[in-house]
TrEMBL record:
Name assigned to this protein: Cytochrome P450
Keyword field: Heme, Iron, Metal-binding, Monooxygenase, Oxidoreductase
Native source species: Nannocystis pusilla
Family: Belongs to the cytochrome P450 family.
This protein's record includes keyword Secreted: no
Listed Pfam families: p450 (PF00067)
Keyword Membrane part of the UniProt annotation: no
Classification via InterPro entries: Cyt_P450 (IPR001128), Cyt_P450_B (IPR002397), Cyt_P450_CS (IPR017972), Cyt_P450_sf (IPR036396)
GO molecular function: heme binding; iron ion binding; monooxygenase activity; oxidoreductase activity, acting on paired donors, with incorporation or reduction of molecular oxygen
Length: 418
């Protein structure tokens, strides 16, 4: 921590707190103030430097040598001794993609990417559409639903598990395991709850172990078989522990909550912007651009972490080596120096693709094509079958504490039936 951080920190440095779920509802005025007054600042509450402008964020992302992802999430750093001891009884935690860099990152990224490239996503499209349709069938006649619970949460997880060749009956259990683990890493779980979460993760590891065994003896067309094959082609094949981290972390954990929140954010912006939903219903061809603009204006990826490897000067601030950097993507995507009228939902803007919704550079979201495919398919189906969709007057959308992801965890929608 810098010596003078408290005395020189701007007021918002003490206010900004992604662990306060209420702030996720509308953090954009605060972000605007950050960009204007002190675009790079030390946050005493987070113990990190926050970077809020598009250009500064891009400088960080372009320079992995000085701003590394290596151990940026420092897995295990805040575990209680009891939780750490239980964790040590399972497969060792290994770096995956988000917390890795250089050749090791590239090697693991090739393995995960083999199952998520354009060709693979294209092959899964009919199945993704069928899974979305099944969920929609269950509530289309109701006229009112919490779309987070009924669709946005189960849909991406179903897609990922289906791709991995996992029976859908195991979904609730996997969701619990994955949530327990993700919260342990990102949501400041109280010490007394940590051991139970670790036990849950160990069960998740054993489940993955069995899956890998099964696919090794009888490979299929699924994403896990694909990753196992890609792994065998590597000069340094992935260890069992690495494979488990890739399945549980890079695939399941990274791939479902993000997409769930993005679907809710997208629906919310489309249904609150006058004329936007009607325009999609009239011309579903607009969905692809609208989606990119929703990713920009309602940032789902709030921010991600990096660590400095040397003293750096950024946004006029001198940051020491070894400091944690929080690149605030949801702010960069609203930067007035990058986007004209940044708060306005305007899919026709020329630079609609310049958003930071999937990051940038070597760590650009490896699941972006899958996430886009899911959102497009969902919106196409909704436009076709629920053209009169609107936001319910109440209850209000609910947001929750999270350091990397933002978006409604409850979003009530209505439409006319019969
Ligand atoms: C709309 C949904 C999604 C959003 C908003 C999102 C956002 C992001 C962002 C911002 C990053 C960059 C991280 C960084 O800069 O450090 C990222 C990376 C990543 N995403 Fe996504 N993601 C989504 C969907 C998915 C899906 C569906 C998957 C997999 C099935 C996935 C897997 C990953 C992985 C493994 C990384 C790490 C890549 C690397 O470090 O090389 N994501 N994602």
């Amino acid at each position: 921590m810098p010596k003078d951080s408290h005395s020189s920190a701007p007021a918002f440095a003490h206010t900004f707190n992604p662990f306060d779920g209420e702030q996720h509802r509308d953090p954009f005025a605060l972000f605007e103030q950050m960009r204007r007054e002190q675009p790079v600042f030390w946050s005493p509450a987070l113990g990190m430097w926050v970077v809020s402008r598009h250009a500064d964020i891009c400088s960080v992302l372009r320079d992995p040598e000085r701003f590394t992802s290596l151990d940026a999430y420092a897995i295990g750093a805040e575990f209680t001794p009891e939780a750490a001891a239980r964790l040590a009884t399972g497969h060792p935690l290994t770096r995956t993609l988000l917390d890795n860099d250089g050749a090791e990152h590239a090697r693991l990224r090739r393995i995960v990417g083999s199952a998520l490239n354009g060709k693979k996503v294209e092959q899964w499209r009919p199945r993704i559409r069928a899974l979305a349709g099944e969920l929609l069938d269950a509530f289309a006649g109701a006229g009112r639903v919490d779309i987070a619970a009924a669709f946005a949460e189960p849909f991406p997880l179903r897609v990922i598990l289906d791709m991995l060749g996992v029976p859908l009956a195991d979904l609730p259990q996997i969701k619990r395991w994955s949530d327990d683990w993700f919260e342990l890493l990102f949501a400041r779980v109280p010490p007394e709850q940590q051991v139970a979460r670790v036990e849950s993760y160990l069960e998740f590891q054993r489940y993955c172990d069995r899956m890998i065994d099964a696919r090794t003896t009888s490979p299929g067309q699924d994403a896990l078989s694909e990753m196992l094959q890609a792994g065998r082609a590597e000069q340094v094949p992935p260890s069992r522990a690495e494979l488990i981290s890739l399945i549980s972390g890079a695939f399941i954990a990274a791939g479902h909550e993000t997409t769930s929140r993005m679907l809710c954010n997208t629906l919310r912006v489309l249904l609150t912007t006058p004329g936007a939903w009607a325009a999609i219903v009239a011309d579903p061809g607009r969905i692809a651009r609208d989606l990119e603009e929703a990713l920009r204006v309602e940032g789902t990826a709030l921010g991600m972490l990096r660590v400095t490897t040397a003293e750096v000067v950024l946004g006029g601030q001198t940051i020491p080596a070894g400091a944690r950097i929080y690149v605030l993507y949801a702010s960069g995507s609203r930067d007035e120096q990058q986007f004209r009228c940044p708060a306005q939902f305007d899919p026709a803007r020329a630079n609609v693709m310049d958003h930071l919704g999937f990051g940038r550079g070597a760590h650009y979201c490896v699941g972006a094509l899958l996430a886009r495919a899911q959102a497009r398919i969902a919106l196409e189906l909704f436009a076709e079958r629920l053209p009169g969709l609107r936001l319910a007057a109440e209850p209000a959308p609910v947001y929750r504490s999270h350091v990397t992801i933002r978006g409604p965890v409850s979003l009530w929608l209505e439409w006319d039936v019969g």
